[in-house]
Amino acid sequence: MDTKESKTPEEEKEHLTNERKPENYAASKPEKQPEAQKPAGGMQKILPLIIIGVGILVVALLFFGGAD
């Protein structure tokens, strides 16, 4: 027996909007928080360099190691 409550698409959308929004959304002013204003940290800048370096290392090992 199915006991789930059936909702219209509008009710479902309103429910999801209310679930995602914090209770004190109006008072928190997320756009004025300093964490939201500063750019991304160093990890986002270093990660592509690490990936490229590992890729070059793998290619070098395959090239030089596979030439037995």
Automatic annotation (TrEMBL):
Residues 1-35 have a biased composition (Basic and acidic residues). It comes from the Bacteria. The chain crosses the membrane at residues 46-67. Keywords: Membrane, Transmembrane, Transmembrane helix. Residues 1-39 are annotated as: Disordered. This is Uncharacterized protein.
